[in-house]
Amino acid sequence: MGTRTADGPWRTLAERQHGVITLEQLRQSGVSWSAVVAHVEAERWTRVLPRVYAISTGRLAPGARLRAALLYGGASAILSHRTAAEAWGLLRPEPGPVHVTVPYGSSAVDQPPLVVVHRSRAHRHLRVPTDPPRTGRADTAVDVAVAEPDADSARRMLVAMLTSGKVTPAAVEHRMGERRPRRYRSALLEAVRMVREGVQSPLEELYATDVEAAHGLPNGRRQSPFSVDGTELYEDVVYDDVGAALTVRLDGRTHLIDGVAFRDRRRDNAGELAGRARLTYGWRDLAADPCTAAREVELVLRRQGWPGSALPCPRCTTQAAREWR
Fold this sequence. Notes:
alpha+beta, Endonuclease, Chain A, 3 domains, 4-stranded mixed β-sheet, 15 helices, 45% helix, elongated
């Protein structure tokens, strides 16, 4: 065919695939190997992955990256793990490779830095009919969590996805019963339980695990209704069930919004008028030093009449541990 490839069905196909096409698709359209080599050497086309080409040069658009990874993986490849999570809106997009899952027996292997290939014996049960194809929401959430380096990270990752509003605890728990995760099952079930009991953000999960559970503090009641100016609002954590009029507020970004800031000030004033003690923590407070938060919560709880006592956790410093006794 020579170095100048006449337009044909291959171009229509490539355009439909975000400007990428496989060597096999080109050959089926009558484009010779020598023509492909000539286009690449002339820098009109780009070899993206083994047997996958872009009919242009320069940086690949996001859609082209996804399609190229799927074409490389083969006809059964589906988007999965972090890539599928971003497509579902479970996680915010971040730079990184495209994750695809293929059946066992596929010849596709990782192609850094563009593609990470996963294999699954349950592959045919994972695919949902989206364009491009990807794993279902619950499977995606479990896969992403299981890929974390330890159980704590897995639990927190799953809480983040469960509180995104894009997948439900019931769906994840049901899927875990059908397809048992290869590790961290207890931690993932704990994440499901926490969200069901009112944890609504990764910050609330951090408080529940690293402040309450790690230091033997009582479990507060989550999302407790509270009336302000005739409107029912919800407090993050209250300890009325153990006889302490203490409210703990976990301060996310929404306080920067004018309407929310006004509402929170009115809520603060209403709490003060009701004689409630209040403590407020943000992500930086709890991630850097949950032990100090635990000591503060214990102090107020005991002042309010809680008869129990907290314990130092493994993260507590030697000096802090002495303060517990």
